[in-house]
C-alpha cells in the first residue's frame, strides 16, 4: 500500500469513530459520563449512558460495537458514596464532575458525571416504582 492509501484508511477510521461518538452523544436519553468498574484499580473510561425503563446502558464512546458494555439495573442499585473528582484523576472535559460509588449486585463501580447529568441520574433512580428497593446515600 502506498502512503496515500494508508492516509485515506486512517482518515476514514477517524471520521467513522467521530461520527459514532456524535450519534451516541446526540441520541435522546443519552448523557456523557465516565465509568470505572473497580474503584481505584482501573482508570476512568469515557462513554455514554442511555436511560431505559429500568436500566442504564453504558456504551463506550470509542469502540466498534454499538451495544452496551455495562448494564446497570435500577432495582437493587446501591449508591454508597459521593465525592468530587480530583483534577489529577480525570480528563477534565466535564466541569464539576462528581463520582458516585455504586454497587449493583456483585458488581462495584464508580460512575462520574457533570452536575446536570447527575441530577438526571438521581431523578431516574428516585423515580423507581414503590416496590423497588433503593438505597441512596
Query: What's the pLDDT, averaged over the residues?
Result: 79
Helix content: 25-40%
SSE string, helices as H and strands as E: HEEEEEEEHE
Q: Quick one: biggest sheet?
A: 8 strands, mixed
Beta-sheet strand percentage?
Answer: 35-45%
Number of strands: 8
**How does the overall form come out from the CA principal axes?**
elongated
Task: Explain what this protein looks like in three dimensions.
It is a single chain. The chain has 137 residues and is α+β, with helices and mostly antiparallel strands. Helices cover 26% and strands 35% of the residues. The protein contains two helices and eight strands. Strands 4-3-2-1-7-6-5-8 form an eight-stranded mixed β-sheet. Strand 6 and strand 7 form a beta hairpin. The radius of gyration is 17 Å and the shape is elongated.
Per-chain topology:
Blueprint (H helix, E strand, L loop, with lengths): L2 H24 L3 E7 L8 E7 L3 E6 L9 E4 L3 E8 L13 E7 L2 E7 L1 H12 L8 E2 L1
Parallel strand pairs: 5-8
Antiparallel strand pairs: 1-2, 1-7, 2-3, 3-4, 5-6, 6-7
What are the main properties of this structure?
single chain; about 140 residues; alpha+beta; eight-stranded mixed β-sheet; 2 helices; elongated
Short description:
This protein is of the alpha+beta class and 137 residues long. It has 2 helices and 8 strands; from the N terminus they run H-E-E-E-E-E-E-E-H-E. The chain has an 8-stranded mixed β-sheet with strand order 4-3-2-1-7-6-5-8.
Amino acid at each position: 500500500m502506498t502512503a496515500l492509501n494508508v492516509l485515506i484508511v486512517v482518515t476514514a477510521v477517524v471520521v467513522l469513530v467521530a461520527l459514532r461518538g456524535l450519534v451516541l452523544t446526540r441520541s435522546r436519553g443519552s448523557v456523557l459520563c465516565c465509568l470505572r468498574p473497580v474503584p481505584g484499580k482501573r482508570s476512568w473510561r469515557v462513554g455514554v449512558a442511555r436511560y431505559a425503563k429500568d436500566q442504564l446502558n453504558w456504551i463506550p464512546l470509542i469502540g466498534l460495537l454499538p451495544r452496551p458494555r455495562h448494564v446497570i439495573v435500577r432495582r437493587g442499585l446501591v449508591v454508597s458514596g459521593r465525592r468530587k473528582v480530583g483534577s489529577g484523576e480525570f480528563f477534565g472535559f466535564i466541569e464539576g464532575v462528581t463520582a458516585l460509588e455504586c454497587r449493583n449486585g456483585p458488581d462495584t463501580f464508580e460512575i462520574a458525571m457533570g452536575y446536570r447529568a447527575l441530577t438526571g441520574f438521581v431523578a431516574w433512580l428516585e423515580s423507581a416504582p414503590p416496590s423497588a428497593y433503593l438505597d441512596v446515600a
